[in-house]
Amino acid sequence: MMFFMTILQRVVLKKGNMGKNEAMVVRLQKNGIISSKKVAEVMESIDRGLFVPDGIQSYVDTPLAIGYNATISAPHMHAVCLQLLLENLQPGMHALDVGSGTGYLTACFAVMVGSQGHAIGIEHIPELASTSLENIKNSAAAPFLEEGSLSIHVSDGRLGWPEFALYDAIHVGAAAPEIPQALIQQLKPGGRLVIPVGVDVQNLQVVDKKMDGSVTVRNELAVRYIPLTSLKAQLNGY
């Protein structure tokens, strides 16, 4: 009887969390952050609660500490980035998530590009990379991990991941003092890079590479991210 009640409680809890996740997405739609049906569906399918330590504030629209002087971005920032990259996250495309942290946005990318595409997460903290794999295994993105179209790698994200370049979409989850040239080089003609740039004042920048290889950069909005830096600097508090 105790075993049955434990299973039942887990089912109720899961349904409750799913409801909270869906409510989070609805709020983002009502506030005009999410305008795409596809982005809404993806964020509904990937439960944020599975990617947040202890899950206490999983669905509150705020960044949360995940250890190692790192954070998971607020839901509205994930939604903004998914909206900005929407056309570059179509089925069959290649996407790179730099500073993948708990794996949440990488999982969203995997669902969007599908089995014929490839979603790559780069995280320089081995413990976070390991945790993100477990998070993904418990999420709707698990099949993509199993078949190999989603992968997480431990590396310096400032260098990108040349093995699967060129990328249609690149997202960076930490603020660089300037745009890393390696990421521009690994961006496919027609591709888009979304990255926070700046030190004291930061802007989320949208970098588009035209078919002739030329690059345009525009500021989307003012933001506040942790620095994109070395492993040593991050562990020492920047």
TrEMBL record:
Keyword Iron appears in the UniProt entry: no
A Pfam family annotated for this UniProt entry: PCMT
GO molecular function list: protein-L-isoaspartate (D-aspartate) O-methyltransferase activity
UniProt keyword annotations, A-Z: Methyltransferase, S-adenosyl-L-methionine, Transferase
BP-aspect Gene Ontology terms: methylation; protein repair
CDD domains: AdoMet_MTases
Catalytically driven reaction(s): [protein]-L-isoaspartate + S-adenosyl-L-methionine = [protein]-L-isoaspartate alpha-methyl ester + S-adenosyl-L-homocysteine
Record-level GO cellular component terms: cytoplasm
Catalytic activity, EC: 2.1.1.77
Keyword Secreted assigned: no
Highest taxon, organism lineage: Eukaryota
Family, as annotated: Belongs to the methyltransferase superfamily. L-isoaspartyl/D-aspartyl protein methyltransferase family.
NCBIfam families: pimt (TIGR00080)
Record-linked PANTHER family: PROTEIN-L-ISOASPARTATE O-METHYLTRANSFERASE, PROTEIN-L-ISOASPARTATE O-METHYLTRANSFERASE 1
Protein name per its UniProtKB record: Protein-L-isoaspartate O-methyltransferase
Species this chain originates from: Papaver somniferum (Opium poppy)
Taxonomic classification: Eukaryota, Viridiplantae, Streptophyta, Embryophyta, Tracheophyta
